[in-house]
Amino acid sequence: MKIAMLARNANLYSHRRLKEAAEARGHTLDIINTLRCYMNIVSRRPEIYYNGEKLPLYDAVIPRIGASVTFYGLAVLRQFEMMGVYPLNESVGIGRSRDKLRSMQLLARDGIGLPVTTFAHDPKQTEEVIRLAGGAPVVVKLLEGTQGIGVVLADTERSAKSVIEAFRGADVNIMVQEFIKEAGGTDIRALVVGGKVVAAMKRTGADGEFRSNLHRGGSAMSIKISPEERATAIRAAKSMGLNVCGVDMLRSNHGPVVMEVNSSPGLEGVENATGIDIAGKIIEFIEKNAKPNSTRTKGKG
Known about the structure:
The protein is of the alpha+beta class. It has helices at about 15-25, 70-80, 90-100, 100-110, 125-130, 155-170, 225-240, 270-275, 280-290, and strands spanning about 1-5, 30, 35-40, 45-50, 55, 60-65, 85, 115-120, 140, 150-155, 175-180, 185-195, 195-205, 220, 245-250, 255-260. The strands form 4 sheets. A 5-stranded antiparallel sheet has the order 14-13-12-15-16, sandwiched between helices.
């Protein structure tokens, strides 16, 4: 098979591993810088150009689109879809997962466990928003944040109000969530590939840090998850319409709650923690499922 990967940094661990796994199985994989693509949007003849040349027709495309280039990256991915190329994750699914508020709404619609989440535009509703989230402490999140950036734990009603008003003053969108104290600064990331959890790890935040992101000094270890946690991760992936994703969950007193669904999960932490060849499983999934013109959500929002 001839596979394209949309990624800006070919040297990242995840991208190197996917390329190695594809080539080990006899495929070719070209890493294409998303921002260097440009498109010819012609009726019935969609084309993508890269570094001055028209791209050949690929069998599949692996989107590894950075959060900072989501808008343009999804436009390029949609063009691949219009050309009939099989996407590992479809543009609609990635768009759903990147919109934190929309993803929460979709998960809630499907009855998946969530922390209490509130959202408002009018700063006059600040006190009511905090009350609906269960009162302080609360977690305040930028809707556009990633890797733990733009996530603040407000311990008191006064600090929560100050943080929310500061974000409002900067004209950025935020949501306010219940703080799951019993999680103890740890979370679970479950890797879902093709409707199955293929690996799971527990992430623990650095001393004094409530965020467990590995990029913020957290540590990871392999973990055996419960049937309820496994089912929650699979349902969350299905809600987003993602074939491959990382589902981040907390263990609360009322069962697993989903914090985020990541459509481009890093492979380094989970492969090192579990010893499982995630990249190989992703390529194997593509082998079994890549068919021309098989985008399921074409034209759907």
